[in-house]
Automatic annotation (TrEMBL):
Protein name from the UniProt record: Chaperone protein HtpG
Organism: Paenibacillus thermoaerophilus
Gene that encodes the chain: htpG
Database matches in SUPFAM superfamilies: ATPase domain of HSP90 chaperone/DNA topoisomerase II/histidine kinase, HSP90 C-terminal domain, Ribosomal protein S5 domain 2-like
Family in the record: Belongs to the heat shock protein 90 family.
Gene3D superfamilies reported in the protein's UniProt record: 3.30.230.80, 3.40.50.11260, Heat shock protein 90, C-terminal domain (1.20.120.790), Histidine kinase-like ATPase, C-terminal domain (3.30.565.10)
UniProt entry keywords in alphabetical sequence: ATP-binding, Chaperone, Cytoplasm, Nucleotide-binding, Stress response
Amino acid sequence: MAKKQFKAESKRLLDLMINSIYTQKEIFLRELISNASDAIDKIYYKALTDDRLTFNKDDYYIKIIPDKTNRTLTISDTGIGMTEEELENHLGIIAKSGSLAFKQENEARDGHNIIGQFGVGFYSAFMVADVVTVMTKALGSDQAYKWESAGSDGYTITPCEKATVGTDIILKIKGNTEDERYDEYLEEYRLRSIVKKYSDFIRYPIKMDVKRTKLKEGTDNEYEEVVEEQILNSMVPIWRKNKNELTDQDYENFYIEKRYGFDKPLKHIHISAEGNIVYRAILYIPEKTPFDYYTKEYEKGLELYSNGVLIMDKCADLLPDYFSFVKGMVDSEDLSLNISREMLQHDRQLKLIAKNINSKIKSQLQSMLKDERDKYETFYKAFGRQLKYGVYSDYGANKETLQDLLMFYSSKEKKLVTLDEYVSRMPEGQKYIYYATGESIERIDKLPQTELVADKGYEILYFTDDIDEFAIKMLMKYKDKEFKSVSSGDLGIEADDKEKESDANESEHKDLFESMKTILADKVTSVKASKRLKSHPVCLSTEGEVTIEMEKVLKAMPG
Ligand code: ADP
Ligand code: MG
């Protein structure tokens, strides 16, 4: 039996497709420019493999021509063009990508970087246009053809006049009703900003005629309006350049240009990964905590590019939460342009990139800690809390990654120290890593509980952040040393003369303790003679895992 083909209702399919794939109308321009760039890549590729052709870079460009009078926007390219048959095949069948076919045909050879391969980008033009007209002349052909469609009722292909090889896409911009008026896409400034946003790193010049008022020649106060052809894109992205061609200033400028932050970056990481995963990235560790960083409003993520074209502003999947402060961009050639967010989540390539990035950030922080201590402390003051959250969250799954990046204020050094520094200078006989919890360094300094430990010559870590104690509870130990709060019942410090003294005190003042307990009733579980006090008369201590400070935090938590 002959199999019948499904007949898709093309208008509905078109609507469905366009509206589900694209969330912003403005990306139609990105799609058309990408197609134009692909078409130029193809002619370039042909020139590489065909001796009769020469490729003169200046002859290849994309031009955007807004025409307010006729309400048209033209995207013109000097690319390979389309034959009548190609028009039929590539623009007549939805979701058939000519670029994918081209890629497959030329798989064996290298030298092209074609963006399209999904076969729907072109139709995004119908989001903003009533009628789309394509005038095209293919390389090696004498006849040009015109394809025209109003979207719903099919298309026509007729011969037409066109002098040069290449393609003009002419959009009749919608303006029928109030909510379907897209006059903005005829405005110079708007077009310029869309090009900057999505297509800044297209390798060919994207040109536009712009009006400019200029000082009239030979005068010093008379102005005239001139039309000037400008190139809108900067073409070579900084991440494609070689590290040794770039200065710190270049990286800083890029950070500012991209508005990654209003501060200066503390550190940049420039990655060009080859091998299993091929991608380039420029990442930044900011210097200051963004004002909304520790709020729900803060959105983590990196810009994601597919071969120089922006596909997502903030790709959250590229960064773990504990490195959510990292800013920057990733460019990979292997991602499809019109891939949706849902698809990206499952993209294997993307997962590999994320993993790779994660370890690069970690090693960068480690070397900063080792070689640029001051910088690291600046970083830690801004984002250390996030690392501690990282240790605590996901049931401690990331503690291995993060524990060496942690720092705490030390009683001994009077500055931030790492756990490794603490442990490596523990005197013989010290069993635990001691810490004290409190609101501030000054208050902890006054805590009676710290006296005995300090007296022993042991270093104490000061926990002044709510999260500190929760984080180390998750760590449990560091290099086999357990953490111990100075206010816990058993400090693990060798008994000495004080032991006997307090035992004697205990029995001698039994009555006193008992009446104190009666007065304090349910506020305390017991009253005892302490072995740890020196100059203070009294202190509070806890039994069990939850310390007084943790109790406070837990009580303050909602729910
Ligand atoms: P994709 O770019 O993902 O292949 P599109 O819907 O954007 O899908 O384009 C469909 C096909 O139409 C392209 O693969 C290409 O073969 C052809 N095409 C589109 N625009 C042009 C152009 N400006 N010049 C030459 N061919 C083009
Ligand atoms: Mg395309």
